[in-house]
Structure formats: structure tokens, C-alpha cells
Design brief:
With 342 residues, the chain is an alpha/beta fold. It has 2 domains: 150 residues, Alpha-Beta Complex (Quinone Oxidoreductase, Chain A, domain 1); 152 residues, Rossmann fold (3-Layer(aba) Sandwich). Helices cover 25% and strands 24% of the residues. Strands 3, 4, 5, 6, 7, 14 and 15 form a 7-stranded mixed β-sheet that branches. Strands 10-9-8-11-12-13 form a 6-stranded parallel β-sheet, with helices on both faces. The longest helix has 14 residues.
Length: 342
């Protein structure tokens, strides 16, 4: 008996002004497409909602069309010789229950099978989040053993991965900022940061100076604004900054905050400030897995994730991530793994 599957997808209906609202999204339904030659139909299991999606809302995403994002799914029908039914794949057709993919196109790749490694790791510490952290530390900062590190938004997806990987690489003192007392406690407890502070407790520059009174050698900045200014102030001569994101301005792209007031200190202290785009470093994926998989299998490292259950709650998870409700990577579990394909 032939079963017609229903595919659901979230679409953006209008551009946001300020913080996004649920009413900007619509949920569409249609029969799941059949794969053509060289294609495979994937049913998504986990979806990633990321800070950069907020930027996409301002113009990157087309209106009234299925949105895109990182996802993990299982092949349920295939005419792609590189993908067999049952294969788990990573791809970039998220925000939907089903997707047509082709191996090697738009980031689509069959996931390796690692015993004892949770599937969520492939969208967090083994995914783009972890790869961003890894290349920031190893390629941009060229972190050396014993160097002291500051991580802004340290309880988020990239921040937690930076902390985990930096410790494996032999970093010295690791200091982080976060948005609540509970997150600060998690950073200095389960995540092994040496010090952390809640950036709501005062001027960030003063809080960082107190947490790192002797200064820092390197920084991974996910926030921009006052956090970037604080990092510049705390850095010792010849320090380096890997600038990953600018959470401080995501909801005001047309009115970004003023540049750090101490920007000339980059010259005075011979600092290096470099932006990081993970898409420029996909060749490092194998290095990342070689480093982390043994520690994931041993249990020394676990994926830092917050999981929202139910595809219909994708927008809730996205907005919750923007409000800082997650610790680690925010993921959506679609529920497909609990259903039969029939």
C-alpha cells in the first residue's frame, strides 16, 4: 500500500522590526516530494536554530518559502547512489519535516557512525557550532598551552564548545560571561571555567577586570559591543581576538551599537582582531572529530544541548534561544524517530 506522507515547513511571512514575534512565521503543509534521479528524501530528526537565523530574517531568507538551517535526518527514499535508505545525513534544509537532498550539495553528507556518540553531538560540538569553536582556537587564535582565555556568551552553543575544546588544548585560565546566575554557576561547575560573571551585574569591562585581574591572552567574542570593548581592554600586548558573532546588534541591524571606544588599543597593544566564518574552514571537520570523538565515547565530554520537543515548537525554540533560554546548543527534536515510516 502506498502511503502519502505530509511534509510540513515553517515560512517567514514578513520582516521583523526589533525582536521577532511568532506571528512572523507560518506553518505550511504539502505532500512530501518524491526523489528524482540523484536525490534522496530525508525525514528530519533534529533541527538547529542558530543566532545567525536572526540576521537571515532581515533579508537572507526569502518570504513565503521554506526556511533553511542545519539539520540531521534519516533517508526514507533514495535515488542517490551515495545515500541508502536508513542512512543518517547532515544537511542544511532545516525548519521542515522532510527535505530532498543530494550528497555533496548544500552541505549534505552522510554522518559517520561512532559508537557511543549521541546524535545531538553532530549538531552541536561535532557540528558547525563545535567547528566554529575549534577553528577559532586553533586557526584564528593559534591558542598555545597556558594562555588565558575570555569567552563571551560562554553558556551558548559556541561558548560551551570553546570552553570544552580550550581545556583539551591546554588553555590556562578560562573566564566566561553569561546572562544569569544559573548559567554562571554551570560555567564554573559542570563546564570547568575558572571564573565567570553575569553581564547584567555591572559594566562588562569592570566585571571582566575583576574576573581576570592579570589580563588575558586571547578572546573568543560572540557578542560584540561592550563585550568586545572589555576584551580589548583586558588583553595583554600582542593578544588576539576571534570575533565570531555580534549578538548585541542582531535585533537592531540598522542601528548597530557604536564601535568600541578603545578600538585604538588594538594598535597601542599590537592586538590582532579577526572575524571567523565557519564556512571557510570545512576542511577542519576531520581534525575536529579526531580530537573529540574519543572523549565523547569515553564520557569525558558530553554534548551541551537544550532540546525542545516537537516540530511545531520550532519557532518557540528559536525565540527562546534569542532570549537566552538555552544552555549550550538549542535543538529541536521533531519526534520523527518515535514514528514508523509507514
Amino acid at each position: 500500500m502506498t502511503t502519502t506522507r505530509t511534509a510540513r515547513s515553517f515560512q517567514l511571512t514578513a520582516r521583523p522590526t526589533g525582536f521577532p514575534t511568532p506571528g512572523l512565521f507560518s506553518l505550511a503543509e504539502a505532500p512530501a516530494p518524491a526523489p528524482g534521479p540523484g536525490e534522496a528524501l530525508v525525514e528530519n530528526l533534529y533541527l538547529s536554530v542558530d543566532p545567525y537565523h536572526r540576521e537571515e530574517m532581515d533579508g537572507g531568507w526569502e518570504l513565503n518559502t521554506p526556511l533553511e538551517g542545519r539539520a540531521i535526518g534519516r533517508v526514507i527514499d533514495s535515488r542517490d547512489p551515495a545515500l541508502a535508505e536508513g542512512d543518517l545525513v547532515f544537511h542544511r534544509y532545516g525548519w521542515r519535516t522532510h527535505a530532498l537532498v543530494t550528497a555533496g550539495v548544500h552541505g549534505t553528507r552522510k554522518l559517520p557512525s561512532y559508537d557511543g556518540v549521541p546524535l545531538t553531538a553532530h549538531l552541536s560540538i561535532l557540528g558547525g557550532t563545535g567547528l566554529t569553536a575549534y577553528v577559532s582556537l586553533t586557526r584564528t587564535l593559534e591558542l598555545r598551552a597556558g594562555e588565558d582565555l575570555f569567552v563571551s556568551a560562554a553558556a551558548g552553543g559556541v561558548g560551551t564548545a570553546v570552553g570544552r575544546i580550550a581545556r583539551l588544548l591546554g588553555a590556562g585560565r578560562i573566564v566566561g560571561s553569561a546572562g544569569s546566575a544559573a548559567k554562571v554557576a554551570r560555567l564554573t561547575g559542570a563546564l570547568g571555567f575558572d571564573a565567570a560573571f553575569d553581564y547584567h551585574d555591572g559594566p562588562v569591562g569592570e566585571l571582566l577586570a575583576k574576573a581576570a585581574p592579570d589580563g588575558i591572552d586571547v578572546a573568543v567574542d560572540n557578542v560584540g559591543g561592550d563585550h568586545l570593548e572589555a576584551a580589548i581592554s583586558a588583553l595583554r600586548d600582542h593578544g588576539r581576538i576571534a570575533w565570531v558573532g555580534a549578538i548585541a546588534q542582531y535585533h537592531s541591524a540598522g542601528r548597530p551599537p557604536a564601535a568600541p571606544r578603545n578600538l585604538f588599543d588594538v594598535v597601542e597593544k599590537s592586538l590582532r582582531l579577526e572575524g571567523v566564518l565557519v564556512r571557510n574552514h570545512t576542511d577542519a571537520q576531520g581534525e575536529l572529530e579526531d580530537l573529540l570523538v574519543p572523549h565523547l565515547q569515553s564520557g569525558l565530554i558530553t554534548p551541551d544541548v537544550t532540546v525542545v520537543d516537537g516540530f511545531e515548537r520550532t519557532v518557540d525554540g528559536f525565540l527562546g534561544m534569542l532570549r537566552g533560554e538555552n544552555t549550550g546548543k538549542m535543538l529541536i527534536r521533531t519526534g520523527a524517530e518515535n514514528r514508523s515510516d509507514g
